[in-house]
Design brief:
- This protein is an alpha/beta fold.
- The chain folds into two domains: about 1-105, 3-Layer(aba) Sandwich (abc type-2 transporter like fold), CATH 3.40.1710; about 115-310, no CATH class.
- It contains eleven helices and five strands, in the order E-H-E-H-E-E-H-E-H-H-H-H-H-H-H-H.
Length: about 300
């Protein structure tokens, strides 16, 4: 579906808007402010803006002004085709000699490339794999080889062991994340709206993501009976998120019954936050909802990890 905004001051009850809603081909937003409409149009969250005005001279009855960005010409042309068909059908109903005249205009907009959608998903899944597989294998191996037991003979605190390993995992994960971001930007034109500030925000989100996903790794290392059972258990956690969290395909393309499941997964919110920060230029406060849900996931999974984690 096309995401269309109806500009403030438009005639809400005119036959063009009514017919457009009935097509089922668009999601029409009616009560947005002009400032937000302009902002969302530039960012690509709206495919086009429609403003329908009555013609004081009577013929045509309405002027339908369609505005879309240079980055969404294809969707703008689709909308014009829909409106032309609506106009033709209304004219055939003899409502008026000419019901509406369609006027199209374009404004500059940020080009949304495929890489702008895929790279945050790839980055999120990379962090998920690092957090789950890396943590599970390392701590299971330490326990199996009695390394942790030997640590207990020293003054080292248990928390220090966990924190030390955690910092190491995060450090390696952030280096990998930075590498992916820079390769994407310089070789594939991945959008970083605010440059270094955007990279920093993405690394902060990556840190939070790794911390949450490490909790899954602790759970796996606690419930695994042998090293050979770690991969299948880890895949039970990672594969559904890889497939359902909008890594390569938009969640909106999934069946309706599947979308609530997709929107309950932590990787979904990391991917969403990454995309908003990178392409839309959102700050961390702007993605506070995604961060909050990830924190809630983190608290829940670490509560489970405390119950399942074994030192010996």
């Amino acid at each position: 579906k096309l995401d269309i905004a109806l500009a403030p001051g438009s005639d809400m009850q005119n036959p063009v808007v009514v017919a457009l809603e009935k097509t089922g081909l668009v999601r029409l937003t009616k009560n947005d402010s002009q400032k937000n409409i302009d902002s969302q149009l530039e960012k690509g969250n709206y495919d086009a803006v429609i403003k329908v005005d009555k013609n004081p001279n009577g013929v045509p009855a309405y002027f339908t002004n369609v505005t879309y960005t240079s980055a969404s010409l294809d969707k703008g042309n689709i909308l014009k085709s829909i409106l032309n068909e609506i106009s033709y059908n209304l004219n055939n109903q003899n409502l008026k000699p000419t019901v509406t005249e369609i006027r199209a205009s374009t404004v500059s907009g940020r080009l949304y490339r495929t890489i702008d959608f895929i790279l945050p998903g790839q980055l999120g899944f990379s962090l998920l794999s690092t957090g789950v597989f890396g943590t599970a294998f390392v701590f299971f191996s330490l326990r199996q080889n009695l390394v942790i037991k030997r640590f207990f003979a020293t003054p080292v605190k248990r928390s220090s062991i966990v924190i030390g390993e955690g910092i190491a995992r995060i450090g390696f994960a952030l280096l990998g994340a930075l590498f992916i971001i820079l390769i994407g930007h310089f070789f594939f034109h991945f959008t970083l709206v605010h440059g270094a500030i955007t990279v920093l925000n993405m690394l902060i989100l990556s840190t939070l993501g790794v911390l949450v996903f490490m909790g899954f790794g602790f759970v796996v290392s606690g419930i695994a009976k042998s090293e050979s059972t770690i991969p299948p258990i880890s895949n039970i956690i990672t594969l559904p998120q890889f497939l359902l969290s909008g890594t390569f395909f938009s969640i909106d393309a999934f069946p309706t019954w599947l979308q609530p499941i997709s929107r309950a997964l932590p990787l979904t919110y990391l991917n969403d936050a990454m995309r908003k920060v990178a392409f839309e230029g959102a700050g961390l406060w702007d993605v506070k909802q995604q961060i909050l849900i990830m924190v809630i996931w983190g608290i829940a999974i670490y509560a489970v990890a405390v119950k399942t984690f074994k030192w010996e």
